[in-house]
Amino acid sequence: MFAVKTCLKCEVSMCQEHVKPHLELPAFCEHPLTDPINDFWKRKCLEHDEIYRYYCMDDKMCVCNACTIEGEHSGHTMKTLKNTMKDLKGTLDKQLYRVDRKYSMAEKKLQEQKEKERQNKKFMDDSEACFNRLEEDMKAKVLSFIIRLRECTRTHCDTNGPAIQKNIFRICQDQARLQEVRCGIESLMQENDPFRFIEAYKTTGKQCRRQLRKNMFYPEYVDMETEVLVAIMEEEMKKFLDEELPGHILTAINSLFHLSDLEEEEEENEEEAAEEDDDDDFDDSSEGEMRSEGEEEEDEEEEDDEDGRDPSELGDDPYSPGEEEEEERSEEEEEDDDDDDEEDEEERGV
């Protein structure tokens, strides 16, 4: 049979069968039962060989009945282990409350950062969409600008085109006439019969001389200089760079940051609503959680006294109610200061 309970008063572990009297008989109703204890020797005073039943508040250690009457613990402030555990659990409850409070603060900060992350991603997406629209607009504007430059060039060329075509036509006429003269002269040169040559020369030679006496066509002047065209293109470029291009870019930027301002305004409204809720919760909190100015001054005096003590006098034992309370008050003040700092930072950020 294995042990199921240990009686702290009888200092013995019992199985299911032997523990029945402790559970059923009135004589054992004051005997405290716990789960089976294997290291019972750790619960006994080495000096008096008695089980620990009290906690010395002065020396911060567990003691037995004999220790409370004689020895170095005589006259010290004592608490039962049960009451000590109750006090410690009360301290743990406060710490648990602080843990929950800090966790809530951390959760709030986490949600704030996640919201900022969402806003940051949304801003990036909006930026990409805005820049894509700007890219399309700029492509259209650049295309329109290039078309205008082409129109300038086409206008310049169309102005000179007819004159050049007329010159080419007249020059080709001269070439055709001269080619006819060439053919007539070459045909005469190939004639070997003197009589026929002379007869042909009278007609053909006369025609060739008449054609050669005609004046050659001199082409009309065509202005091929591009200074005027360059000036026109530079004017178009200035208009594009100084008026059209900056206007579209500024419109895109203002549109983008207008969206950002709207998001910031929504965030500020949400923060104001959350702060109002926090103020309501603070007003509804119990007055027992608030400390008076006199208590705060006493806490500060106790902390100053403790700071003036010799470090060798401070123990490393697990429980000291005064120190626990002072640490709690100090940490609560630090938390309040942190909250004030966060509020100041938020106000500055706004």
From TrEMBL:
Superkingdom: Eukaryota
Biased composition (Acidic residues): 262-287, 294-350
Xref: Gene3D superfamilies: 4.10.830.40, Classic Zinc Finger
Domain B box-type: 45-81
Protein name as annotated: B box-type domain-containing protein
InterPro entries xref list: E3_ubiq-ligase_TRIM/RNF, Znf_B-box
Disordered, as annotated region: 262-350
Record-linked PROSITE patterns: ZF_BBOX
Pfam assignment, any one: zf-B_box
Coiled coil location: none
One Gene Ontology term of the molecular function aspect: zinc ion binding
Annotated keywords: Metal-binding, Zinc, Zinc-finger
Species of provenance: Lates calcarifer (Barramundi)
